Amino acid sequence: MKTSIKKIVTAVGATTALMAAGQAAAEIRIGIAGPMTGPVAQYGDMQFSGARMAIEQINANGGVMGEELVAVEYDDVCDPKQAVTVANSMVNEGVRFVIGHLCSSSTQPASDIYEDEGILMITPASTSPEITERGYELVFRTIGLDSMQGPVAANHLASLNPERVAIIHDKQQYGEGIATAVRDTLTDAGVEVAMFEGITAGDKDFSSLVTKLKQADVDYVYYGGYHPELGLILRQADQAGLDATFMGPEGVGNKDINSIAGDAAEGLLVTLPPSFDQKEENQDLVQAFEDKGEDPSGPFVLTSYAAVQLVAEGIEEAGSKDPFDVAEALRAGTFQTPIGTVEYNQAGDMESFEFVVYEWHSDGSKTPVN
Amino acid sequence: MQDLLYFIQQLINGLTIGSTYALIAIGYTMVYGIIGMINFAHGEIYMIGAYTALITITGLTALGIVWLPLILIVALICAMIVSSSMGWAVERVAYRPVRGKHRLIPLISAIGMSIFLQNYVHLAQGSSNIGFPALVEGGFRFGPEDSFQTSISYMQIMIFAVTLVCMTVLSLFISRSRIGRACRAVSQDLGMANLLGIDTNRIISATFVIGAALAAVAGLLLGMYYGSIDPLFGFIAGLKAFTAAVLGGIGSIPGAMLGGLILGVAESMTSGYLSGEYKDVVSFSLLILILLFKPTGLLGKPEVEKI
Predict the structure, then answer these.
(1) Residue A349 lies in a domain
(2) Of residues A11 and A178, which shows the higher confidence score?
């Protein structure tokens, strides 16, 4: 029985490989995997819009090694189970380069499959350190790590001389990871962390939590997670008369938080990648997005654009479409992208990536704090 | 003093949530009481009620109507109408054709219905969280100015009041009205009621409709209280309400009320004194314990073997 299953698997594998070979001759398929639907689909829109723009522009300039890039898009709903299905579909479609995924908890299981199947993956959004900690050869990112973002947030909080800080997270890989990084840095800085507690993602009732925050008399609350929950916490805290300043990572920095929290979103502190769309050298690109009626200001638009560009330049540099050669080229080279100069270390992380603290306003705009 | 205020605050939080669990739980308990089946699509009907209310509120605001009571009443009526027709349709599509078959068949068809409705709203309204406008703001505060104050918002008072009114009306309806009497007859013995000239199909439809209308009330109230809705939020609320129904004794209307309140308070006390992470653990542990030690629930009558 075992051998027959093995045979079938081998046969299927071989067929897939043949199909892949057939397709690869005509074009280079770039997989884009992220949430098109689900609670964090807004971030997915940023990712798809950035990656599509890069593919379009690269093709307009003659493609990569004379071949056209073709996007293969899948929706993972930011669900780890769905991400695995998507990763398998990418394998079946013969995709060799993937831009994605978005949520760390999706990226991690998907990257196991990509690494095993020899697919190169660049995530434009996942910040969990674990993703690149496992010594994988084909996993890269165009964004910083929680271990960089957490300290930025914590140092900012510490500089405000808080009396008591509460840290809340959504128990997911991203949220809890960054919340832990913030707590560790705050503790090192000698700030009292009065509370460190998880909530359930998707929950709607935070009245008990808000009461608890009131009782603990905290003046700052850090939330590790995404905007749907923080929006509700802000709103319910405002109604209960909790007088504290909230802070969150880039997962909460989305205009949708304003539709949920309303005026309660005013004054929220958010750590975000710097506004790449404000940079002088990106103005042509920003114009191209605006001509298409798209908004390039989201935190993941230009990181996705850069990810596609890196794949393209990696292939050119390596002179080969083999993901292992491309990975080697990416680690060796220095690349100029809209998100700045990219150099990779052995793990697949960028040598440096800056996070900036912004103050969020109730109309969805933001102003840098420092 | 502070500890007491804190306790009272958590109690208020818990009773608010509990009341709405109770409103949703009625739908489970009535359907179970009458045909002995669990309507797993009920959570989705609640979600559709919330969406209808939001759409109505948005529409009315766009038309320039600002008088709050009018907005709330129109939204409530629209939500109840749409949810009731959904409840009626669910019964016609997913229950009536398979009634009298093996018990598992209607269960599966109800789960199918739930998945269908969830994805339908997903497609029609998008998958992201939609903010619900805060229409009723403000409230009372008690306690010292400079430290912890217990607050009860107008919204919370409204939730208690509406739940209380709904429950009273429903109890009176079941005990006094003709349809109510017929409901009780059908729940005692469906075959016999049929022989005595009660249109049992109509009565069964009526229970689905009543349950759905109350779920719509809960949808509007909770949408406003929490502040956002999404297509998936009916599922977990449905599970909680189902737990409440079983806890109080499924089939019993006062049981649904009691079960809802106990569950709500248990949840808020857990998050208040232990940690929010254990909230769901506690509520579902309660379900397991009650099923182990008192399977008929707190107010449920033990099943008498019918000869």
Answers:
(1) no
(2) A178
Condensed to tens digits (0 to 9), the pLDDT of residues A51-66 reads 999 999 999 998 999 8
Residues A299 and A247 in one domain: no
Angle at A50 between CA A41 and CA A255, to 5 degrees: 45
Q: B283 touching A, CB under 8 A?
A: no
Residue labelled with tokens 């990712």? A47
Same domain, yes or no, for A140 and A151?
A: no
Name chain B contacts of A214, Cβ cutoff 8 Å: 9, 148-149
Which residue, among B1, B16, B226, B283, would best test binding to A if mutated, counting the most A CBs under 10 Å from its CB? B226
Give the chain A residue nearest B20 (alpha carbons).
Answer: A205
Candidates A36, A205, A230, A255, partner chain B, best to mutate (most B CBs within 10 A): A205
- Domain residue limits, chain B: 39-132+151-231, 233-301
Q: Are residues A71 and A197 in the same domain?
A: no
Tokens coding A11: 């046969």
- Beta-carbon contacts below 8 Å between A and B: 110
Question: Do residue A236 and residue B227 have CB atoms under 8 angstroms apart?
Answer: yes
Q: Do the chains contact at A208 and B272, CB–CB below 8 Å? A: yes
> Is residue A350 one of the residues assigned to a domain?
no
Segment holding B294, helix H or strand E: none
pLDDT in tens, A155-201: 999 999 999 999 999 998 889 999 999 999 999 999 989 999 999 88
pLDDT at A18: 47
Strands A27-34 and A340-343: unpaired
Distances from the Cα of A201 to the Cαs of A101, A237, B10, B231, B276, in angstroms? 19, 17, 21, 15, 11
**A229 and A362 belong to one structural domain:** yes
Interface residue B89 vs chain A (CB under 8 A) = no
Establish whether this prediction's ipTM goes over 0.90. no
Asked whether the beta carbons of residue B272 and residue A42 sit closer than 8 angstroms, the reply is no
Pair (A129, A44) in one structural domain? yes
A240 contacts on B by Cβ (under 8 Å)? 151, 153
> Which pair of structure tokens corresponds to residue B13?
């939080």
Q: Which domain holds residue A17?
A: 2-144+279-338
Structure tokens at A133: 């900690």
Query: Looking at the structure, do residues A45 and A129 belong to the same domain, yes or no?
Result: yes
- Tell if the CB–CB gap between A41 and B127 is shorter than 8 Å: yes
Cα–Cα distance, A271 to A285 (Å, whole number): 24
Looking at the domain assignment, is residue A345 inside a domain?
no
CA distance A276 to A303: 9
Are A7 and A137 contained in the same domain?
yes
Tally of domains within chain A: 2
SS3 B242: helix
- Using CA atoms, how far apart are residues B248 and B293, in angstroms rounded to an integer? 13
Question: By the CB < 8 Å criterion, does A215 face chain B?
Answer: yes
pLDDT digits (tens, 9 = 90+) for B65-123: 888 899 999 999 999 999 999 999 999 999 999 888 888 898 899 899 999 999 899 88
For A241, which residue in chain B has the nearest alpha carbon? B151
